[in-house]
């Protein structure tokens, strides 16, 4: 099982999901209540009433202005988690307080910090395409019944596109073309690149770009452990000019594929997926096509990982895997995740200087 790195930022929801309705999510085994104040601030509190643990995200719990009132006996909490009302007595017990989690709203995501260390100046990594007028975005979220490490493995090795996603995004060249992997251990970032100079154009790109014939296809992965995965995808008609020194690349189509991989429990994961494109921006047909097609591709992964987790659950302890070249990026990611999880624990055990909570 992949250990949790607690003192890190995780995506709890899309910004559009957080509003004046109460939303419950479980992140790293912590039940979290999300809502927005009347002036639009996203709030993340523990989703368990301190009285008898009723979930505050569940009806008849409700918002009263910026406060949340438990639907069972009426305990009422402010945005800082402090209880401001209990029924039948004036005195509110001092310990009546919900954990309040630091929140950052950025690039269409609501990020939360679950750990007991103060995030300080730590900020979540960026995915600016999701909120940029130069891109059109399709997105969604699928829960998976698997250890989040299985989704990290899946995304770090795209050679599976040829087999699992054949006829959608996979062509023979993906599995045939070797990768290059670079690891920045200090920053916790893994880069995996695969550049195909002359490849078949899969339907995903043929339909959306209108390219007929073979393509140059670049896949440049940038994984910011633990939660954010970016795939910079570039396709252009085979033989098209490479990007210019100033970064301009007029002959190519660019797709930024973004995943937020959020561990929910040890064996459940939120798979936030988004596809941002810099072409056919106002073409609704292309938008609809990419949404439907990418959802199908995501579900192929979801189904496979559900099956894989079930199968791993029946393995004997100490079972073996066998890794090959295509796994280099995934193995690097596992090493970084293990280190982040261990660091979080060691520092949490030490007296936390400046800890907020
Ligand atoms: S469980 Fe919330 S008020 Fe009793
Ligand atoms: Fe996949």
Question: How does this structure look, described?
Answer:
The chain is an alpha+beta fold and 357 residues long. It folds into two domains: 105 residues, Rieske [2Fe-2S] iron-sulphur domain (Rieske Iron-sulfur Protein), CATH 2.102.10; 211 residues, Alpha-Beta Complex (Naphthalene 1,2-dioxygenase Alpha Subunit, Chain A, domain 1). Helices cover 22% and strands 31% of the residues. The strands form four sheets. It has a seven-stranded antiparallel β-sheet with strand order 11-17-16-15-14-13-12. A four-stranded antiparallel β-sheet has the order 5-6-7-8, with no helix packed on it. A hairpin with a 2-residue loop joins β9 and β10.
Keywords:
metal-binding; seven-stranded antiparallel beta sheet; binds fe (ii) ion; binds FE2/S2 (inorganic) cluster; alpha+beta; Rieske_2Fe-2S_sf; Naphthalene 1,2-dioxygenase Alpha Subunit, Chain A, domain 1; oxidoreductase; disordered C terminus; 357 residues; single chain; Rieske 2Fe-2S domain-containing protein; 17 strands; Rieske Iron-sulfur Protein
Question: What is the compact description of this entry?
Answer:
The protein has 357 residues and is an alpha+beta fold. The chain folds into two domains: 9-113, 3-layer Sandwich (Rieske Iron-sulfur Protein); 131-341, Naphthalene 1,2-dioxygenase Alpha Subunit, Chain A, domain 1 (Alpha-Beta Complex), CATH 3.90.380. The protein is 22% helix and 31% strand.
